[in-house]
Every structure is written in structure tokens, then in C-alpha cells.
From TrEMBL:
Hydrolase is among the record's keywords: yes
Organism placement in taxonomy: Bacteria, Pseudomonadati, Pseudomonadota, Gammaproteobacteria, Moraxellales
UniProt keyword terms in alphabetical order: Exonuclease, Hydrolase, Nuclease
Species: Acinetobacter stercoris
Gene3D superfamilies in the record: Ribonuclease H-like superfamily/Ribonuclease H
The UniProt record lists the keyword Nuclease: yes
Protein name, UniProt field: Putative 3'-5' exonuclease related to the exonuclease domain of PolB
Amino acid sequence: MRFPVLVFDIETLTDLKSGAHLYGLDLPEADLEQALTKLRRQEAGMDFQRLPLHEIACIAGLWIDENGAMKLFSFSQEHFSEAEILKKFLSIFDKRHPTLVSWNGSQFDLPVILYRAMYHGLSAPSLFDQGEIDTQKRYNNYQNRYHHRHVDLMDVMAMFNGRNFQKLDDIAHLLGYPGKRGESGYFVPEYVKNQQWLKLTSYCEGDVLNTWLIYLRWLLLKGQLLIEDHRLWIQATIHYLQGQPQQQDFLQVWRERSQQTEFTSLDFPATD
């Protein structure tokens, strides 16, 4: 494992103002989302909006440093504007150059961050440079899918074949991890509208934790972690989460679902 590691995820909602501008709509705000959804269905046959229209409501991450210390964090619209969320996240790359780990980050999270950073006039060469500034990044940058500075687990586990893409929730369940615990990203706009910030950040952080656990299993598969080291990282993660009040539900569901697979059942020994 190349340290530091940053596992991340974003949660978004439709940017109604930008959508109205893009399509030339002059409608009350209450009618805009329905109109944008209808237009999207007409042009693409689905509700999922174009990437530039995804306003970022939350970015969560799990930082693991060279000494194995963990820090789970969230930047959300409870305290910050979208531009401020992006500035705080992008500033991480100005100071450090972590191994970035995501699920579908190459096709969704990073392109959305790119578009929204451009929308707000932000500069992020540490994340988006492909060798124009730092020549070393010509051969190992965050955009190239075959490099290892950014590991998009959905992509690499599908062997870079879109027909093999799987959902984070499904793989987490398969491996005995909590998954989304009955929640869905469709609730994100409601969380923001109703100012349910704890639900928003817990959901986003939950995706980060599932991604981290799958990443550990992937490293074990590739021989980049010995099984003894994998067990140590799992126990370190459990110990860390025991001190995180916001993630006690995640920890409890993990304990329950781990018993459904023989390998993962060892995460929580019977004497624990």
C-alpha cells in the first residue's frame, strides 16, 4: 500500500440554477427540477443528470497516513458553500499527493469535481496536472485509468470493461460488509432540503468506509497485503470506528453481515 491513502466519495443534487441557464428555462424553482428531469429523459432516456449539473452537497474521505493513523472527515453544505467544499478538498492535494481510492470515481466523482471547480473558477493543478507542470505526472497521474495514483475500484475490478461494472452496494454485501444499509443516493436532495446533515454525512462516510474495506480485500487479492496484514488493518479500522459515534450503526451492521461469509466472519471473533 502506497501511503498516504485517501478514500473519497461525493454526494450531489441537481444544480437548478445552472440547469435553468443551460436549457433557457424561465420557471419557478418549484417547477425547475421536474422540467429538468423531463428534459433529461427526453435526451438520454434516464433521470440521471448530466455531470456538470451535479452540485456537490458533501465530500467525505478517509485519510490513512504513513503511520497507519486514520481520520474520517466530511465537508458538507451544513457549514460550507459548494465552492468552499471544493477548495477544502482540493487543498489536500496541494500539501500531499495521496493514493486516491474511489468507487466509480473516474466516471463520476472526479469529472463532477472538475466541472464544478471550473464553474467556480478554481485551480487544482495538483489533482488535474497530466505532466504539463510536473513531468513525473505524465507517467502517473490521477486521470489515467491505467495508473495507480487513483485507484477506481469499480473500474479495476471490472478489468476496465464496462460490461463488468458492479454496484458498490452489491460488492459490499457479497463480501460481508454493511453496504448502504437500506439508504440510497436518491435521498440526498431531501437530506439537504430538510437540513438532515447528520444523515447526509453518515451516508457519504458509509460509502467511503465500504470502499476502504473493499480496497483492503483487493490488495489482499493482488498480493499487496499479506493475510496477517489484512487482518491487522481490519482490526485497526474496527478500533477506529469504535471511537466514531456517527458510525456506530455502520459498525453494528458490519458485525451482523460479516457472519454471512466465512472469511469476513473472522473480522469479529466470537470472544469479541
